């Protein structure tokens, strides 16, 4: 809105306005109109008010140095226009830094596009039962009430707190699938691991693989369950192994090869790199003798990934998480969205050896 100077009374005595913070009531008193009219003019919603009056109010506001109180404006709408981001574990530990980055970029971009601020909850760990996890209800009250809605992400959670959030109908979404004790799903936006793994299984079968190994960190993760179910349901003989990276050694790989394994589906690229190093020590060619597929590569813009498999669309999921919590604030029902995972061609899959 363009402002033009018009002949009006100039405020030469700042003492006439007694408060430190200039209010709309001060402007209304000096302009000789109601505070409601001033509010409409300052929000550019006063087409019915004469132009000369609007111009007089704007000039008085400018000369007084009036600045709108953003908190008051937001609370007048009944919202803070702040979205929370909460993780149960230590925020973005170094080992997971690259994994979380695309989600955070997506959340940030979407929040900005929707004129929302973000509040990152980083309180000290004080989880229930000595778990060491951060707690939403550590003080007895839901700390997420500080914001309009919240996005939860990370590998861990406190199930009882998710139960309480759902019972309270607090508007939140978890990045990644989670389930309550009675089997109900928690509102979420998640990679569609099952569909992407089914396609990966078909690729392996087309290449002649029948006996494969699955290698991951935690058999209880919903993502691991989804991947394994998809592999087993496609006619593959699957040998699941769950072990930390430092236990992926020559003995383990030798046992798998002796069992007739010709391909491996790995939970992340760190496992692929470790297996590749061990295979090199054993003089086992990748992919000529052993094919490797990563069921969840991290998005990295402009980076050519050598591994075959599929990519986790973290950036897209971050965007959708913001859109879903905002939709909840407008009365939409809880969302349970699965986001397709793009195929990664890579170069680590080959025809199974005879």
CATH architecture of the largest domain: 3-Layer(aba) Sandwich
- Strand elements, count: 12
Mean pLDDT: 86
Shape summary: elongated
Biggest sheet layout: 6 strands, parallel
Given as residue ranges, the uncertain stretches (5+ residues, pLDDT < 50) are 1-19
CATH topological fold name of the largest domain? Rossmann fold
Q: What percentage of residues falls in helices of 4 or more residues? A: 25-40%
Radius of gyration: 28 Å
Number of domains: 3
CATH superfamily of the largest domain: Response regulator
**Which sequence of strands runs across the widest sheet?**
2-1-3-4-5-11
Number of helices: 11
The N- and C-terminal alpha carbons lie at a distance of 75 Å
SS class: alpha/beta
Would you state the CATH class of the largest domain?
A: Alpha Beta
Order of helices and strands: HHHHEHEEHEEHEHEHEHEEHEE
Report the β-strand fraction as a percent range. Answer: 15-25%
How would the blueprint of this fold be written?
Layout: H1 24-31, H2 35-42, H3 51-64, H4 70-76, E1 82-86, H5 97-113, E2 117-121, E3 149-152, H6 159-167, E4 172-175, E5 188-191, H7 193-206, E6 211-216, H8 222-232, E7 237-242, H9 250-258, E8 263-266, H10 269-281, E9 291-298, E10 308-312, H11 314-329, E11 336-339, E12 343-344
Parallel strand pairs: 1-2, 1-3, 3-4, 4-5, 5-11, 6-7, 6-8, 8-9, 9-10
Antiparallel strand pairs: 10-12
């Amino acid at each position: 809105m363009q402002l033009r100077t018009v002949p009006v009374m100039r405020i030469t005595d700042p003492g006439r306005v007694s408060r430190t913070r200039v209010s709309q009531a001060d402007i209304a008193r000096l302009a000789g109109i109601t505070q409601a009219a001033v509010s409409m003019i300052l929000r550019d919603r006063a087409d019915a008010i004469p132009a000369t009056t609007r111009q007089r109010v704007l000039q008085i506001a400018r000369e007084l140095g009036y600045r709108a109180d953003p908190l008051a404006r937001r609370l007048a709408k009944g919202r803070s226009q702040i979205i929370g981001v909460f993780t149960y574990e230590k925020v973005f530990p170094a080992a997971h830094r690259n994994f979380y980055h695309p989600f955070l970029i997506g959340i940030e971009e979407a929040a900005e596009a929707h004129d929302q601020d973000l509040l990152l909850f980083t309180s000290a760990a004080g989880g229930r039962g000595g778990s060491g996890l951060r707690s939403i209800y550590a003080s007895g009250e839901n700390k997420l009430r500080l914001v309009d809605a919240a996005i939860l992400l990370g590998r861990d959670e406190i199930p009882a707190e998710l139960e309480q959030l759902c019972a309270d109908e607090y508007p939140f979404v978890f990045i990644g699938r989670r389930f309550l004790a009675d089997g109900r799903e928690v509102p979420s936006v998640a990679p569609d691991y099952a569909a992407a793994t089914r396609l990966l299984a078909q690729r392996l079968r087309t290449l002649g693989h029948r006996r494969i190994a699955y290698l991951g960190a935690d058999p209880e993760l919903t993502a691991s369950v989804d991947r394994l179910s998809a592999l087993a349901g496609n006619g593959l003989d699957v040998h699941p192994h769950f072990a930390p990276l430092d236990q992926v050694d020559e003995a383990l790989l030798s046992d798998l090869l002796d069992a007739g394994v010709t391909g491996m589906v790995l939970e992340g690229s760190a496992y692929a790199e470790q297996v590749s190093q061990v295979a090199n020590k054993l003089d086992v060619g990748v992919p000529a003798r052993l094919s490797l597929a990563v069921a969840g590569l991290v998005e990295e813009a402009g980076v050519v990934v050598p591994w075959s498999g599929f990519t986790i669309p973290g950036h897209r999921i971050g965007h959708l998480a913001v859109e879903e919590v905002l939709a909840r604030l407008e009365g939409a029902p809880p969302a349970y969205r699965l986001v397709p995972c793009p195929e990664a061609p890579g170069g680590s899959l080959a025809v199974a050896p005879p």
